[in-house]
Design brief:
Radius of gyration of chain A: 19 Å
Distance between the termini of chain B: 9 Å
Distance between the termini of chain A: 42 Å
Mean pLDDT of chain A: 89
Structural class of chain A: mainly alpha
Number of strands of chain A: 0
Largest sheet of chain B: 2 strands, antiparallel
Radius of gyration of chain B: 11 Å
Largest interface: A-B, 5 and 12 residues
Oligomer: heterodimer
Number of helices of chain A: 4
């Protein structure tokens, strides 16, 4: 099977759908079980409610991220690459990652390992933000080229 | 800003937009972009073709207008 751009975008779309399924399962089933497991195996003390709430609340920006990435990939598939709409999706994704990072950092008060999730989410938000900046520059250059007669 | 006075020269030479675009070698949409002053830049090759077809000088087509005045 020959690899090309179209298949690459399709693979990315499948990955986004897979992440959505994982998030759905996590939200629906796994969080209370995981929190109970954490208490049993990691000897966490105290109520599991703050940890469960953190994961559920952080899944909201997660869903927004996944939806934005899905729409972005659909645009790429149509050939619409350097567009203001794609920049909006990337901006939304970066802010959702940063928000999730802040939530996890705040929840580290209850469970210290959330610090790592917070830092990872924040760093991902930073990377997406920089890619968004690059796209904005590319759109400006494309406009300049399109309006050069 | 630089104003492109294509309409004036087209009227003088009695040349419709479609024919001018074809003779210059640019798309009618691009000629419209030029006429409506939405262009960001003009290639010398395009300017040369316009001057050749309209039998004029670049100064007849391009005019500098200070920002705020029209």
């Amino acid at each position: 099977m020959e690899w090309n751009r179209s298949r690459s975008i399709l693979l990315s779309l499948c990955a986004v759908v897979l992440f959505a399924v994982v998030l759905l399962v996590t939200d629906a089933l796994a969080v209370p079980l995981c929190m109970q497991a954490c208490q049993v195996f990691l000897s966490l003390e105290g109520d599991e409610l703050p940890l469960t709430l953190t994961v559920y609340i952080a899944s909201v920006p997660g869903w927004i991220c996944l939806y934005s990435l899905f729409r972005l990939l659909l645009n790429l598939r149509r050939g619409a690459v350097f567009t203001a709409e794609n920049v909006r999706y990337m901006r939304r994704t970066s802010w959702c990652c940063i928000l999730a990072g802040v939530l996890f950092l705040a929840a580290a008060w209850f469970w210290l390992p959330f610090v790592f999730a917070g830092i990872a989410a924040g760093f991902m938000g930073l990377i997406v933000r920089i890619v968004k900046n690059i796209f904005e520059q590319a759109i400006a250059m494309k406009d300049e080229l399109d309006y050069t007669i | 800003m630089i104003v492109v006075n294509l309409d004036v020269m087209m009227a003088r030479r009695k040349l419709p937009a479609g024919e001018l675009a074809e003779r210059v070698g640019i798309a009618p949409a691009n000629l419209s972009v030029l006429k409506t002053n939405k262009a960001r830049a003009v290639r010398f090759s395009t300017l040369e073709a316009l001057c050749r077809v309209l039998v004029c000088q670049p100064g007849d087509l391009l005019e500098y207008v200070p920002d705020g005045k029209e």
